[in-house]
Design brief:
It contains five helices and 33 strands. The chain has about 450 residues and is mainly β.
């Protein structure tokens, strides 16, 4: 009996794959299917199975949150598939799903509203209307006391979840520039900006402290990530990475991710786009990135050295984007997604020591025992789609670009494939000048302008 994959998420040491008919658990160690369970009635629209494409997992891996076309948010037991609870109070098209660190609360964005449910009762959510447009990202602090949300307009809002201060601190004006990445740690909410600035925002009172150093210059910061311990922070741009001491908010040094610098000749660039965003291992010591087709790179955050350069990923080669999405819970493998085309993508579990592919989940094919069922929405960051139309994307985690998705689709229709690749990499400001993209400055150095589509 065929099963068409819709989306996938990590469930502890297994991958939970939501299909158009059932929930399938695949063991990450060897790819063995641990179990298949039927989904509760009305979970999947049989006419539009791809409409259910948002799936997040609780920190303990026991509960799945799945959205449906009518706006209902269902909590499912990850092993039995049983519906534990239905959460209502939305208008549909939920985005930015995230469980709190203790799993007792679940946040989702209903367009510009931030909704927060308790997961132990069936009740209407808390509603916070603190953004002027669509909310694209939500991140909890390590203690669950602060919720940081990011809008497509670049506005960042901190919501106090302890009950001491119920109105969020709106930081948009104070930040002074567009936000490109957001990461919540116990010490601070880390904000990376398109201008290359790094900011530390207090989760207690919203105080903003700019980093004293600026190692990325005017290059947009692609990612800012820290491990669970929060000792070290790594920030990346398209050229390299920088390591910070989070406690002192001090730059420790920089790391070159590429063996050779990018070619200054725009004609030498071609798809796919290799996302330099780094993800930190569960023990907080290593960080992984895919800066080029040469293969993933592993950096030691304490010695600030590249400790391993893994071999190139196996065929087929991606045509759009390659990105590290995280680590397995044991820290032994990387989770890497590839957008092979506008209608196909896969998930690779790659050994972090040897680079061997332990498991490949082809999301355009059936799971074991199934058959090919045709195109689908490609995978995006953290195993769920952010609502963008399938096709070339700047970054799976891009919060701002969703707000100009329609303009970008129109622009892409007028650019051929090679020019789109150059545009995504920031090598061709001529395309931006000619098409008048609202978020990319014209007449500037390409390196400074390269990521403002995000």
């Amino acid at each position: 009996m065929g099963a068409r994959p819709i989306t996938v998420a990590a469930c502890g040491n297994a991958a939970c794959v939501l299909t158009d008919r059932e929930l399938v658990r695949v063991r990450l160690a060897d790819g063995v299917v641990e179990g298949r369970v039927a989904l509760p009635p009305n979970t999947i629209d049989p006419q539009r199975p791809e409409a259910v494409h948002k799936l997040v997992v609780s920190p303990d891996g026991a509960t799945l949150a799945v959205t449906s076309l009518d706006g209902t948010l269902r909590l499912l037991d990850s092993r039995t598939g049983r519906a534990v609870r239905e959460l209502t109070g939305t208008s549909g098209d939920l985005q930015a799903l995230a469980f709190s660190p203790d799993g007792t609360r679940l946040v989702a964005a209903d367009h510009s509203s931030v909704l927060i449910w308790r997961t132990d009762i069936t009740a209407r959510p808390e509603r916070h209307d603190v953004h002027g447009g669509r909310v694209s990202t939500a991140e909890w602090s390590a203690d669950g006391g602060t919720l940081a949300t990011l809008g497509v307009d670049g506005g960042v809002v901190l919501l106090d979840m302890t009950g001491k201060r119920r109105v969020g601190a709106v930081l948009t004006d104070a930040l002074g520039a567009r936000t490109t990445t957001l990461w919540a740690t116990e010490q601070a909410i880390v904000v990376g900006q398109v201008t290359g600035r790094l900011l530390f925002v207090s989760p207690l009172d919203g105080t903003i402290e700019p980093a004293a150093e600026r190692p990325h210059g005017t290059n947009a910061i692609d990612s800012a990530r820290a491990g669970p311990s929060g000792e070290r922070l790594i920030t990346t741009d398209y050229l390299g990475a920088s390591v910070w001491d989070l406690a002192d908010r001090r730059l420790l040094g920089s790391v070159e991710l590429l063996t050779d610098p990018p070619s200054p000749d725009p004609s030498s660039d071609s798809a796919p786009y290799y996302n330099t965003a780094s993800w930190v291992s569960p023990d907080g010591r290593l960080a992984a990135s895919t800066p080029s087709r040469a293969g993933p790179v592993i950096v030691d955050l304490f010695t600030r050295r590249v400790v391993r350069r893994l071999p190139p990923l196996p065929p087929p080669e991606a045509q759009i984007e390659v990105s590290v999405q995280g680590w397995t819970p044991d820290g032994r493998s990387l989770l890497i997604t590839r957008q092979l085309s506008s209608a196909a993508s896969d998930l690779l579990v790659v050994d972090a020591t040897s680079g061997a592919v332990r498991l490949r989940v082809d999301t355009n094919s059936a799971l074991p025992g199934g058959n090919r069922r045709g195109p689908h929405r490609p995978l995006s960051r953290r195993g769920h789609d952010r609502g963008d139309a399938p096709g070339p994307r700047c970054h799976g985690r891009s919060p701002v670009r969703a707000g100009v998705a329609g303009q970008r689709r129109q622009r892409d229709q007028r650019l051929d494939q090679s020019e789109r690749a150059l545009y995504r990499r920031g090598r061709s400001t001529a395309a931006a000048d000619r098409l008048g993209h609202p978020d990319v400055p014209t007449g500037r150095d390409p390196a400074a302008a390269r990521r403002q589509c995000r």
